[in-house]
Specification:
Elements lengths: L2 E4 L2 E7 L3 H6 L13 E8 L5 E9 L4 E7 H15 L5 E4 L5 E5 L13 E3 L7 E4 L9 H10 L37 H10 L4 E8 L9 E4 L2 E10 L2 E7 H10 L3 E3 L2 E6 L19
Parallel strand pairs: 3-8
Antiparallel strand pairs: 1-7, 2-5, 2-6, 3-4, 4-5, 7-9, 8-9, 10-13, 10-15, 11-12, 11-14, 12-13, 14-15
């Protein structure tokens, strides 16, 4: 079975009598729908609705949660959580254990001897398990990145810059990372308005190049005009956050889309529910 061990991740514990109420009121994830043995994506937003921190959250016992994020943002994330703590009866701490072992492409998600194993619910068509127990081997990190990229799962750092993307841009609305039926949370008004008005135009798309793709951050262009930005890539396959209206306009008239000089095609991840806009887009709008 393919597996990989990530060393650039960090774990944050939030526990105590008020832990669930505290997190439910500030994070995008609806914790009422978070079951034992699963990890769901989420974000802590700015009041303007853009993502300040992204993470995976899972239950770690009674009145306890585990938030997994990039190690590079973990200290700032802890400080921000403490800032919002006020009088809530919660304990917030960065854990010493920072290794994450991933296993994918197997039907049974957990070892009976590993109580930390959780199903990564971002993946719909193939099961992925995340484990927070020690592992002796590193595995194949390149294979994991290729797998994540091929399935259209974007992460901050590799695919977008924190503070610049809305949850809809990175498909958190499609991945169970935004609770549209729960109460208020930070940035909720902006996110709900985008959802109800259907105004999301920047979306994660899968990129296929005729040649190996250039580096992350490369602009995707149509006749010199930007339509998106390339993120992670593995050979000729990658991710991009792109304006789906501009991409559709180019596709409709057969204009080539380029990443530097590499011709590419852009497709919606197979599990996603959104579609390219059906209405015509004028040249001025595009």
């Amino acid at each position: 079975m393919p597996f990989a061990q990530l060393k650039d991740r960090a774990l944050i514990s939030v526990s105590g009598p008020d832990a669930e109420h505290f997190l439910q009121n500030i994070l995008t994830t609806d914790l009422d729908t978070l079951g034992d043995g699963e990890a769901k994506p989420g974000a802590l937003l700015a009041p303007q609705g853009k993502i300040l921190f992204d993470f995976l959250i899972s239950r770690a016992g009674e009145n306890a949660f585990r938030l997994e994020c990039r190690a590079a943002i973990s200290d700032d994330f802890v400080r921000r959580l403490i800032l919002y703590k006020l009088r809530a009866k919660v304990e917030i701490a960065k854990l010493e254990q920072a290794l994450v072992t991933l296993v994918w492409g197997m039907e049974s998600i957990a070892s009976q001897n590993d109580s930390t194993a959780v199903a990564d619910r971002r993946f719909r068509d193939e099961p992925v398990t995340r484990s927070y127990a020690d592992a002796a081997e590193t595995g194949d990190i390149a294979a994991w990145q290729a797998f994540r990229t091929a399935h259209g799962i974007a992460e901050s750092g590799a695919d977008y810059v924190l503070g610049e993307a809305f949850p809809h841009d990175v498909l958190l609305d499609e991945l169970g990372g935004v609770g549209f039926k729960k109460g208020c949370y930070i940035g909720q008004e902006v996110v709900s308005r985008m959802q109800h008005r259907g105004t999301a135009r920047r979306r994660v798309l899968i990129v296929e190049g005729r040649l190996p793709l250039p580096v992350a951050g490369t602009e995707l262009t149509v006749e010199g005009r930007p339509v998106g930005t390339l993120g992670s890539s593995a050979g000729t396959t990658g991710l991009a956050i792109a304006r789906i209206d501009r991409v559709k306009a180019a596709m409709d008239v057969g204009q080539p889309i380029l990443a530097d000089d590499v011709p590419v095609t852009l497709t919606i991840p197979g599990w996603a529910n959104f579609t390219f806009p059906q209405e015509a887009v004028s040249a001025e709008e595009a």
